[in-house]
Every structure is written in C-alpha cells, then in structure tokens.
Amino acid sequence: MSHVESVNAKITDLAALKAACKRMGVEFVEGKKKYNWWGYSVGDYPLPKGFTKEDLGKCDHVIRVPGVEYEVGVVANKTGGGYSLLYDFYGKGQGLLQKFGQGLTKLVDNYSVEALKAKARSQGYLCTETTTQTGGIKLTVTGFGD
Amino acid sequence: MKQVTFIVENGNVTIKSTGFKGGACDAATKAFEEVLGGPGKKTRTSEFYEQEDNPKIRLKGSS
Description:
By secondary structure, chain A is of the alpha+beta class. Chain A is 25% helix and 25% strand. In chain A, the strands form two sheets. Chain A has a five-stranded antiparallel sheet with strand order 1-5-4-3-2, covered by helices on one side. Chain A has a two-stranded antiparallel ribbon with strand order 6-7. Chain A starts with a strand and ends with a strand. In chain A, 36% of the residues are buried. Chain B has one helix and two strands.
C-alpha cells in the first residue's frame, strides 16, 4: 500500500524553507532528484493535484528527517510558480507525520515564520518571536515609524 | 505604536495590524501577504476608518 499527498503550501522561498528545516533539525538536501517512498502508486488513493503517476518520486530537492526512511520531495510547480511538498504518508511515512504534523503543517508553519522574519529584516523592521499558549508562533514586527 | 503581529499555527497565519490610521495598515502588511502567497480575508478595525493626521488632499468647500 502506498499513498502520496501533496501539501498545497504556498512555498516560494527556498531560503526560508532551508531555514525552517534547520530550526526543525531536519536536513534539506539540495538538488536531490528523487525522494524515498513506497516506489509506486497502487491506485488506492487520489494522486496529488497537478501530478501524474510518472511524477511521483521525482523532485528538485529533498527534506530528510533523521531516522525516517521516507522523505519529503520539494517539487517546483509546473504552473503558477512556487513549490509543492510531496510525501508518502503510509507505513514508513508515519515518521514524517510525527515530525511535521498532519499535512506537514508544522513544516509549513516554520516556513511561514522564517519567510516573514526574512521579509521584516529586509524591510528594516524589528521582529521578535514568542510562543503562544496554544503552541503557535507569534511574530511582532515594529519600526514602521510612529 | 504601529505594529504588525503574526500568529502562525496549524498551517494558518493570522495577521493583526495596530496603530495605523486609514489604509496605511494595508500598505504595511502587503509585502508580508505576498510572502505568504497573497492576502486573505480581512476584518477592518475602527482605526482603519480614521483619517490620517496630515491628509494630502483637500476637497473644495470642506470645513
């Protein structure tokens, strides 16, 4: 059995994605063209939107979690720009969910944080990061001129 | 004090701008919205509807 799910995260900044991987303690393997997964689709789950069976397993970069055999593929979108994250969440892919959460939301959250912080710095603003009571991340940006 | 806060949780980003008058909040958050992939649903506060302290346009006949 195998499944591949695409997270429609609006990831456009690879530098922010790399920074997110670093803060989460996972490896961004730049230029690796194949990600580890079951190996073939058995057709028991819908293909990720915009992808064919032939696309599965191929990518532009890989995100690797220490101790987890399956990997996340970072795939440049064919249209619309940005990247999609493809991964097999079945069996050995459970380790990816444990690390990144269902739908890879924790990875996406960390990406968003790093992208926002980078933008704040580039605009010359001051940015501080704290944690909310519910485990979220709060960024406070100041320096807009009062 | 003008500030923008972002709450990032469960795949969602909530953006809150405070201390801005009029449409200045939109200008302040635009660059950040683009980073995230585009603007989301906005809920305006009363500050948005306040005029800036030094309006650049004066209408004839206005007091």
